[in-house]
Amino acid sequence: MNTPTPGRGWLLRLVLTFSFAQAAVSMARPAVSYRALALGADETAVGVITGVYALLPLLIAVPLGRRTDQGRCTPLLAVGIALITGGCALSGVVASLPAMAAWSGVMGLGHLCFVIGAQSIVARRSAPEERDRNFGHFTIGASLGQLVGPVGAGLLISEHDGAMARTSATALLVSAAAAACACTALWRLEQRQERREGAPAGGTPRAAARRVPVLGILRTRGVGAGIFISLSVLSATDILTAYLPVVGEAQHIAPATIGLLLSLRAAATIACRLVMTPMLRLLGRTALLTTTCAAAALLCAAIAVPLPVWALALVLAALGFCLGVGQPLSMTTVVQAAPDDARSTALALRLTGNRLGQVAAPAGAGLAAGVAGAAAPFVLLGVLLLGSAVIAVRVPRGPGVPGRTAARATEARACRPKARRSGRGS
């Protein structure tokens, strides 16, 4: 069992680091799409390049999780930042679609390394009742990056006078510089005892931890549901980032406007995570997940309809708010359902599910866009999120969910000694 650490300076530094890394990726992803279009790619090719971003991570996520369960997390963050920086920079230098796809894969591998390490730090250093809050605040870093990155891409990329190839390359080089800045807040993210023994405070040394079978983790109630919900929400965010530029091109919306719309979605996600604790108290985890996934399904389908820019902005703001719930609560669900000495592996399985969605969803989206137009992927996302809403109903109510359930459990524990003394059973 982990012991909570006094103070949350480590969480603030982790959020800052995540903000820089995510800003780099969020700037690079639409820049890769625009550069691919400038180099002659069609909608299907954009979908393939987007899917390659997740291919390498899909193959090595679980081994990385195993390694993190047995050792430190911070080295993975440094490796991840280096790979993101290199992937962004080299994507802006090469001039062929296969090379862009390859370096996009390196970028995705770096993002995976960073996220596994960062999520494992939050899981280790948070008490059970703090996890919803701490994971919510941690993912604010992702949302801040998703807010800044697309705006930067939109400001740097221009389609006038055939400048898209050159300006999208500039955006990729700037994103590499942003990723390098993430190194500035990596200090003292892990506790001294973890650095010395390779174990969380109050826990078993990682080298002696038992190796929990992957199938055993997946069969644990709550793990599968958390993985599928996370897959659906991330696929929605990913395809939205990759295909909104395609929708913008079809509807003659400028890249700068598309960047602002994507940042509006990210700002709404930040707002959601800032008020997540009151929403959990009011609705509970199950109802909140179910409601937001169902609403996001309808909003994704609405993007498939040609809308004026102001209406599209309203839809994206509401969609961003709804999508803000799924990632942090799926993290908490998976961590609390998994065995204590396999939490990093469980988080890696969750990320494997995410990357599987990032491989399959863009490929399917590319095929759908090639057949039925750029709006078709958003209809597919609506179906996926609707399935998540159905699955969310079965998410167990684990510890750490504030509200009446926790209060009743505390009251019941306080009453047990009195009931035994009086000779009455419960």
Summarize the structure.
By secondary structure, this protein is mainly α. The chain contains 16 helices and no strands.
Task: Walk me through the topology.
Elements: H1 9-38, H2 43-69, H3 74-93, H4 97-125, H5 131-156, H6 164-181, H7 192-197, H8 214-219, H9 223-250, H10 255-274, H11 276-283, H12 285-303, H13 309-337, H14 343-372, H15 376-392, H16 404-422
Helix pairs in contact: 1-2, 1-3, 1-4, 1-5, 1-6, 1-9, 2-4, 2-9, 2-14, 3-4, 3-6, 4-14, 5-6, 5-10, 5-13, 9-10, 9-13, 9-14, 9-15, 10-13, 12-13, 12-15, 13-14, 14-15
What is the string of SSEs from the N terminus onward? HHHHHHHHHHHHHHHH
Radius of gyration using CA atoms only: 21 Å
Number of strands: 0
Number of helices: 16
Q: Ranges with pLDDT <50 over ≥5 residues?
A: 1-6, 193-209, 399-426
Question: In this structure, how is the largest beta sheet organized?
Answer: none
Q: Specify the overall morphology.
A: globular
Mean pLDDT: 78
Give the amount of beta strand, in percent.
Answer: under 5%
